[in-house]
Design goal:
mainly alpha; sterol biosynthesis; sterol metabolism
Length: 143
């Protein structure tokens, strides 16, 4: 077991201090889970897009999975490199994009209803954006 714990501990020891890097990794892990489930089934995705579940197709689910996986990878890199403004900004923009997507689906396109399944990503995006804007000067050291 030490052959796994040692390298993982070494990797996580390079994270910047504070809860924000851990939060970015946590939301990345949730995103990766969401990507995997989108590749495997559309049942959870149809719950999120309950305004028009008939529009959720295997192709749209795979596309959403790929988009979510990409965003998760950006957040992982950002978590380890928050001291660089460009990585911090990229991490922040992933939440802006997510919030824009879900707000558009709720308020413009009607693909999502304002219910439990869509409130989760909504709350994560809003909380993350507020948090990242507030603590930016604590993390960013290099422009």
């Amino acid at each position: 077991m030490d052959f796994i714990v040692g390298p993982v501990t070494d990797i996580f020891s390079t994270l910047p201090v504070g809860y924000l890097p851990k939060w970015l990794l946590f939301t990345s892990a949730l995103g990766i889970f969401n990507s995997i489930q989108n590749f495997c089934t559309m049942s959870l995705t149809k719950r999120v897009y309950s305004g028009h579940p008939e529009q959720v197709t295997p192709l749209s689910a795979r596309l959403f999975a790929t988009w979510t996986w990409s965003v998760s990878m950006i957040r992982i890199y950002a978590a380890f490199h928050l001291q660089h403004r460009f990585m911090y900004d990229l991490g922040l923009w992933t939440y802006v994009i997510a919030l824009t997507h879900y707000a558009g689906e709720v308020f413009v396109f009607g693909g999502c209803k304002l219910n439990g399944p869509v409130l989760s990503p909504f709350c994560v995006a809003v909380t993350s954006l507020i948090w990242m804007i507030q603590v930016k000067d604590e993390y960013v050291k290099f422009i």
